[in-house]
Amino acid sequence: MRQCATNSRRIALRLSALLSLLFALTAPAYAVLPSEMLANPVLEARAEHIGSELRCLVCRNQSIEDSGAELAHDLRLLVRRRILAGDSDAQVIAYIRSRYGDYVLLRPPLEFSTLLLWGGPLVVLLLGAAAIVLFYRSRRGQSAPPPLNPDEQRRLAAALGEARE
Amino acid sequence: MSRRWVFVLPSALFALLVGGFYVGLQVHSDVLPSPLINQPAPRFSLPPLIGGQRGFSSADLKGHVSLVNAFASWCAPCRDEAPALDALARSGRVAIYGIDYKDKPAVAQAWIEALGDPYARIGADDGRVAIDWGVYGVPETFLVDRTGRIRYKHVGPLTDADVSQTILPLVARLDR
User: Fold this and answer.
1) Mean pLDDT across chain B, nearest whole number?
2) CB–CB of B127 and A74 under 8 A?
3) Domain range summary for chain A, segments of one domain joined by +
């Protein structure tokens, strides 16, 4: 009896380990329909990569690959049409950006106007680090206390002796 | 003294940020600026709603100031702006053209007739031409000048106030 119970426990453990591994390996759930996908898997992978960089303008915090909106569907088809027409990834993104503006890019472009956006966190971090450095430097400037005279040393030893008990 | 400064600075920065974000929140941020302002309108040719009528193409936009209105019969705000568009059409101040966006032609035709047809021409679009105009929802309205350049874009339904305070003065400026 004990033998069987041990076995089934082992099986349960192995099964749950396998399931966990499988769940970890699943791809993100895209809204791309099978009918939209390109036949060529290399081109389709490019299309999905480009699409994941483009914002759905209806559901603003999703990419067009993730969004179920009609506009996202239309833009997914457009991305695939441009790829089939021979555009590079950069050209496809430029095509859509020229029509919808910078907001259609999920990652803001790195330009002079967005320097504050990209650099801001780093600047704040550096300011904080500078503040810490200055704070400790000002503390170190304080002079050490003068050494204890023999009477004070005896009192210190007595106090420490008491604390140890 | 540098000690106090070190504590005041982060708080001051934070206060500045809060102030900045508060101001930013007042701006109506869900309307996207169009990169097509002052660019030539896209080249397109759309079929008519009803066979036999001439459709709507970019050639129709040359030589006069035009209002291009993207709409659909399934769009509730489009219904809201119908009276303002109708009044504008009656005034005869500007030619109004329609892009019927992802719609059923027969349904759209009936819808337009019921609300008063302000359009000189209407093109039936499956969505591809609208993408060239940077349309991300309906209704959206564009003002195109005599040379065919987009000069203004309005997102959302047009109100009478929009027409009198923004559209008509701009039309007058572009007409000169």
Assistant:
1) 92
2) yes
3) 2-104, 113-164
